[in-house]
Every structure is written in structure tokens, then in C-alpha cells.
Design a protein that fits this description.
Elements (H helix, E strand, L loop, with lengths): L1 E2 H7 L5 H9 L3 E3 L2 E2 L6 E2 L5 E3 L2 E2 L7 E6 L29 E2 L8 E7 L2 H7 L8 E8 L4 H9 L2 E2 L2 E2 L4 E8 L4 E8 L6 H8 L4 E9 L2 E2 L8 E3 L2 H10 L4
Parallel strand pairs: 9-15
Antiparallel strand pairs: 1-4, 2-3, 2-5, 5-6, 7-9, 7-17, 8-9, 10-14, 10-15, 11-12, 13-14, 15-16
């Protein structure tokens, strides 16, 4: 059994606090009866509605995917491009959603889940969940440019949060380099814009890690279920456990 507000949050109705407000104000019914008591316990067999609209109760699913290139990090795409959902096997019957996004041409680690509350917390800037990217860039960044990335670089009128940056390798003949960049913000195209801002356009980009999670054992286009311990650790990172 789970607390009603947690079930509502998990179903993506609202945050846990927002769900508590909905319950207190009488918007929620369980098996046809209005419930206003916080902490009421429910099961997956109970019929729950919010303003007379039933919510979908599913078992929580947590997936780690190695997103390939030319796949869209959405559930549906108006341009009929391949989505990350298209890569899932029939064994995933629940409706899962990407946690954040990776660009169409960006590869690497992407989480998918139907746990709306955890997804919202993982993408909330206040929890500063670190994500590490490996970028192939034009030119070879100098130490000063790498320091600029570490301190924060100006992008579209605002200075980014400090990042961890490292030159992994360089090819002086081709005038390209491999750079590791770890950030905890999640602005649109942020890594590409940060490297562009210091004069090194991105040629290829891959997300290598998300918090403590890595791509070990997961090939491009494949995915695996997170272990219960991994889910527990993620929730601890965002104070849900």
C-alpha cells in the first residue's frame, strides 16, 4: 500500500505537495468517496479520480537506455522520426517517458520512467544532478578556455553554472579534440552552446553518465531496467527516500 499523495505524484498528476493540496481541497475520490485525509493508504486495485477523471495506476518502471543517433527523445514525433519509445521491446507495456532530453544527433545515457515525481525531481535544477558528456570539437581548447568552462561561460545573456571540464585527447593534424564536460544544469543544447561560446563547435556529442549511472554493458539502441538499489540511490539524490 502507498500513501495517496505519493500515488498521485507517481502518476504525474502533480508534485507530492501539489497532490496534498488537491486531496485537502476535496478534488480526489477513492472508490467513489471523497478523501481529504493526507496519508490515506491505497493499492493498485483502488479506483482513484481527480475531479472525476480517473488516473492511470501502473507499476513503476525505470529504464536506462543508450540512445543512438537519429532518435528523438519524445513519445511522439510530428515529423514521423524514430523515437526512443520505438526502441523499446514489447515487454515494456507501461507508458514511460524520457527524463529530460538528448538532441536528435546526440547519443548516450537516457533515463525513461513512468514515475512522474522522480522524473520531475531529477530535472529540477536545485538538486544539481551531474551529467557527464564527451564531445568531439573543432579545434583544441586551451587551458584558459577549459578554465572558462569551469567557472561558467556566458550563453545567451546568462552565465552558466560552473562545470567540470577536461581535455581527453587532441588530434593536431585534424585540429580536433575530445573534451569531457560535466554539468548539472539542463538548458536546451547547453553543452553545445557552452563549447561554441569558447570557440569550439561540437561535431559529435555523447552523454556518458547520469549521476552515478553509466552505460556499462548497454550497447547503442539497447536498454536495461534499473536495479532496486539504483532506484533507491536516485531517490536519495533528490530526497524522495
Amino acid at each position: 500500500m502507498e500513501r495517496l499523495q505519493k500515488v498521485l505524484a507517481h502518476a504525474g498528476v502533480a508534485s507530492r505537495r501539489g497532490s496534498e493540496t488537491l486531496i485537502s481541497e476535496g478534488h480526489v475520490k477513492v472508490n467513489g468517496e471523497t478523501v481529504t485525509t493526507l496519508g490515506t493508504k491505497v493499492t493498485h486495485h483502488d479506483h482513484i479520480t481527480v475531479d472525476e477523471m480517473p488516473i492511470q495506476l501502473e507499476m513503476p518502471v525505470y529504464l536506462l537506455m543508450n540512445k543512438p543517433r537519429q532518435a528523438v527523445s519524445t513519445v511522439h514525433d510530428d515529423k514521423k522520426r524514430r523515437t526512443v519509445i520505438d526502441l523499446l521491446d514489447e515487454d515494456v507495456k507501461e507508458r514511460v517517458y524520457p527524463v529530460g532530453r538528448l538532441d536528435y544527433d546526440t547519443t548516450g545515457l537516457l533515463l525513461l520512467t513512468n514515475d512522474g515525481e522522480l522524473a520531475n525531481q531529477l530535472t529540477h535544477p536545485k538538486y544539481e544532478v551531474e551529467k557527464t558528456y564527451i564531445a568531439k570539437v573543432q579545434g583544441i581548447p586551451t587551458n584558459d578556455e577549459l578554465k572558462t568552462l569551469r567557472k561558467g561561460v556566458k550563453v545567451e545573456g546568462r552565465v552558466t553554472a560552473p562545470a567540470k571540464s577536461k581535455l581527453v585527447s587532441s588530434d593536431h593534424n585534424k585540429k580536433t579534440a575530445i573534451v569531457s564536460l560535466t554539468i548539472h544544469e539542463g538548458k536546451n543544447h547547453q553543452v553545445k552552446k557552452m563549447l561554441q561560446a569558447v570557440g569550439h563547435p561540437v561535431m559529435k556529442l555523447k552523454r556518458e553518465s547520469y549521476a552515478f549511472l553509466t552505460l556499462k554493458g548497454v550497447q547503442p539502441g539497447e536498454y536495461r531496467h534499473l536495479t532496486p538499489e539504483e532506484v533507491k540511490q536516485l531517490k536519495k539524490r533528490v530526497k524522495l527516500d
